Amino acid sequence: MSDIEKLIRGFQRFRARYFERDRKLFSQLATQGQTPRTLVIACSDSRVDPAIITDAEPGDLFVIRNVASLVPPAEEGGKHHGTSAALQFAVCDLQVANIVVMGHGHCGGIRALMEGSGDESDGYIGPWVHIAERARQKVLARWPDASPAFQHRACERLAVLVSLDNLLTFDFVRERIEAGTLRMFGWYFDIENGELMQYDAEKKRFHDLYLGWD
């Protein structure tokens, strides 16, 4: 079976088992439109699908996926702002109530950044992952003698915080945060252990969401 045939077979199973079971839901979504409450900014990595990880239903999440789950700072000029445009659509048009930035373990984008591929000469990838350069610098300053694996895991988490900070550079995000109509969360998915962690700003650490939640 070819790769594409496998996908077609998967669609056939989806149609028979999932779509037919929830035909009313899909009809409602088609006629009434989407009203997701949560925007998830996640990595393009094939191993970390936010909808699967959260067991979400169609219509629950508005998802932005890019290399390393990064949010660029707000900036004027230029013509192609895919992540920023999707962010604006989610916040201003769909009026989501929550934004989740979800990083993950063994992220190829963060590995590229940590291994020095975040320079301007590295095609499209280098300038993009350079968004998290502040996280890389902090890791190298705080844990200069740690193993590369440790540094990578640390940078993956700190990059989430960089994106949360960058979200506040968008006026339409910051104004809603200050008004209390929008909340932001930093998540980290440990793909090896199946653990999902959330950043606690007061304690300045990530804690496991599986424990303590029914």
From TrEMBL:
Pfam families: Pro_CA. It is an enzyme of class 4 (lyase). Binds 1 zinc ion per subunit. It catalyses: hydrogencarbonate + H(+) = CO2 + H2O. InterPro entries: Beta_CA_cladeB, Carbonic_anhydrase, Carbonic_anhydrase_CS, Carbonic_anhydrase_sf. Zn(2+) binds at residues 43, 45, 104, 107. Its cofactor is Zn(2+). Keywords: Lyase, Metal-binding, Zinc. The keyword Phosphoprotein does not apply. GO terms for molecular function: carbonate dehydratase activity; zinc ion binding. Reversible hydration of carbon dioxide. Belongs to the beta-class carbonic anhydrase family. This is Carbonic anhydrase. It comes from Plasticicumulans acidivorans.
